[in-house]
Design a protein that fits this description.
By secondary structure, the protein is an alpha/beta fold. It is 35% helix and 20% strand. It contains 5 helices and 5 strands, in the order βαβαβαβαβα. It has helices at residues 28-36, 49-59, 73-78, 91-100, 107-114; strands at residues 7-11, 40-45, 65-68, 83-88, 103-106. The chain has a 5-stranded parallel β-sheet with strand order 3-2-1-4-5, sandwiched between helices. The radius of gyration is 13 Å and the shape is globular.
């Protein structure tokens, strides 16, 4: 394991990210800024790993991980970090985040509180 002290920020795609289907309120610029600030970023979705990777590629972002929604706990095992956050748009997202020991934020609530990509969660 690597990256102790950093934060992992996991994003659902559909209904959460602007490049989802349906589009969500979290902008690709916010994800980029979160990664630039030192967070480990990736996605946890109902989509296949290949579909998730394709979404990131089209957005021009290289994620640190992609994982199936029911396997989010694997990310806790992969990275030794102080903080684990999952951002999604449904109670199913919240359920799997809780099972994996991640903090959970609803995308709409987070986007409303931030108002801009200037303040990523967990960034140092």
């Amino acid at each position: 394991m690597a990256n102790g002290g950093r934060a992992v920020v996991s994003f659902d795609i559909d209904g959460t990210l602007e490049m989802g289907d349906p589009p969500g309120p979290i902008l690709a610029d916010f994800v980029r800024r979160t990664q630039e600030e030192g967070c480990i970023i990736g996605s946890c979705s109902d989509r296949t790993m290949r579909e998730q990777s394709d979404v990131w590629e089209r957005a021009g972002i290289v994620p640190d991980f992609v994982v199936a929604k029911h396997r989010l706990e694997r990310i806790r095992e992969q990275f030794a970090c102080e903080r684990f956050v999952h951002i999604g748009d449904t109670h199913v997202d919240a359920h799997f985040a809780e099972l994996a020991g991640f903090e959970f934020f609803f995308a709409d609530d987070l986007a409303g509180r931030l108002g801009s990509p200037e303040n990523p969660p967990g960034a140092a």
